[in-house]
């Protein structure tokens, strides 16, 4: 399930980069060519990987900085209503929303908290040299890991707020006729994209950049495209590293990073390339919304094991989760599952096919059964750990043995 989330994330990176190249070249690079160009990402990633994890992290921080600056620029340029922004952030409501709006709302959850990135943050502790036999050093390391993860997630949240607020303020309620008139007056080459009618404008990553260029100048369009490109590049690296850790931890497969990137990129490029060749950017954007929802659907398969492992005294000793964290984590997982199921029910009720009803019902039952099975296994693990008084002492010995210097003996 986590590998599916990683492949879905890789497909989003391919879509985003293809749209970015199309915008930056003023349409000279077609979408299918932009998809093929993303193959170069593999070689860029492998080139940086040779210089060590620290250099790669520095480059990743640079990409996040570019995203924050570019999308922040769009946010300042559009100047959304701050009061309404705070209201929407803390008061959940969506008047007159259909399945499309709900799918985007559910997708935001998966976009901000990508399931495979939870494993990535956990696995990065292996790259830090910490003397795990000394409780003080472990406690100090936990504090800085918490700070590091909090900053990373906050920046991700902030960037998503910038994007959603820009779309809401700049595009909500606009008609095709209005956008066509503005683009035509500014001499935009994209004015013919918008039919001259009073229907509400449908916005996506591509059209969003075009409309920003019409209303706020060409600089807004190109800055938007650079931000999308930076987001795509950062997604490549996080997906590759988290996939490596997942394969090693779950399946004991130690593939080279080249093989790892090649596999996921090949799976991601094939369907995306077909859509780019035979369809248009609207279908690419629809695929992107679906992939965001897929990320949200995969969240329980990351949250449940993480909550279980960090609650096991046999693994965590004195650093195991307390009752508050266990209950809080369980409530979060339950909320995510309920949101996912609610979206599926709303989406299915708008369909008019009995076969789709049956298929959706079957998939929902299978999904809930899988989540329930995972919860049951985790509860058993927690119960065994609490009932075994020797597990903690055995784990203490194991930690000390693992920290001994390597020698021939």
From TrEMBL:
Localization: Late endosome membrane; Lysosome membrane
Transmembrane parts of this sequence: 29-47, 59-76, 105-124, 145-168, 205-231, 262-279, 299-316, 323-348, 354-384
Keyword Membrane: yes
Organism domain of life: Eukaryota
Any matching Pfam family: Nramp
GO cellular component terms given for this protein: late endosome membrane; lysosomal membrane; plasma membrane
Annotated keywords: Ion transport, Iron, Iron transport, Lysosome, Membrane, Transmembrane, Transmembrane helix, Transport
GO molecular function: cadmium ion transmembrane transporter activity; iron ion transmembrane transporter activity; manganese ion transmembrane transporter activity
UniProt xrefs under InterPro entries: NRAMP_fam (IPR001046)
Family to which this protein belongs: Belongs to the NRAMP family.
Name of the protein: Natural resistance-associated macrophage protein 2
Name of the gene encoding the protein in the UniProt record: SLC11A2
């Amino acid at each position: 399930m986590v590998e599916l989330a990683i492949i879905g994330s890789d497909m989003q990176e391919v879509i985003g980069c293809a749209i970015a190249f199309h915008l930056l070249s003023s349409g000279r690079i077609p979408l299918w060519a932009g998809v093929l160009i993303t193959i170069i990402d593999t070689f860029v990633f492998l080139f940086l990987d040779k210089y060590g994890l620290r250099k790669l992290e520095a480059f990743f921080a640079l990409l996040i900085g570019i995203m924050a600056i570019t999308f922040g620029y769009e946010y300042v340029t559009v100047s959304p209503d701050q009061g309404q922004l705070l209201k929407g952030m803390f008061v959940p409501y969506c008047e007159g929303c259909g399945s499309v709006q709900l799918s985007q709302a559910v997708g935001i959850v998966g976009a901000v908290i990508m399931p495979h990135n939870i494993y990535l943050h956990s696995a990065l502790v292996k790259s830090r040299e910490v003397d795990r036999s000394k409780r003080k050093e472990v406690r100090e390391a936990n504090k800085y890991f918490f700070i590091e993860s909090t900053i990373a997630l906050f920046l991700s949240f902030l960037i998503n707020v910038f994007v959603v607020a820009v779309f809401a303020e700049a595009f909500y309620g606009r008609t095709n006729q209005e956008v066509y008139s503005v683009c035509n007056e500014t001499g935009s080459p994209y004015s013919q994209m918008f039919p001259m009618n009073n229907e509400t404008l449908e916005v996506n990553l591509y059209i969003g950049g075009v409309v920003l260029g019409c209303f706020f100048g060409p600089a807004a369009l190109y800055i938007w495209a650079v931000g999308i490109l930076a987001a795509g590049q950062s997604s490549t690296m996080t997906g590759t590293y988290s996939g490596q850790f997942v394969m090693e931890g779950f399946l004991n497969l130690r593939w080279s990073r080249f093989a790892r990137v090649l596999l996921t990129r090949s799976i991601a490029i094939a369907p995306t390339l077909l859509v780019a060749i035979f369809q248009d950017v609207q279908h690419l954007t629809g695929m992107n919304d679906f992939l965001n929802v897929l990320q949200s659907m995969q969240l329980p398969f990351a949250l449940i094991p993480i909550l279980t492992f960090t609650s096991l005294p046999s693994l965590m000793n004195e650093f195991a989760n307390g009752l508050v964290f266990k209950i809080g984590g369980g409530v979060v997982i339950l909320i995510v599952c309920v949101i996912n199921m609610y979206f599926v029910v709303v989406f299915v009720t708008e369909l008019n096919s009995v076969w789709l009803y049956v298929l959706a019902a079957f998939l929902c039952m299978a999904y809930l059964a899988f989540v329930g099975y995972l919860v049951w296994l985790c509860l058993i693990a927690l119960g065994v750990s609490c009932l075994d008084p020797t597990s903690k002492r055995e784990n203490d010995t194991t930690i000390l043995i693992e920290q001994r210097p390597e020698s021939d003996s």
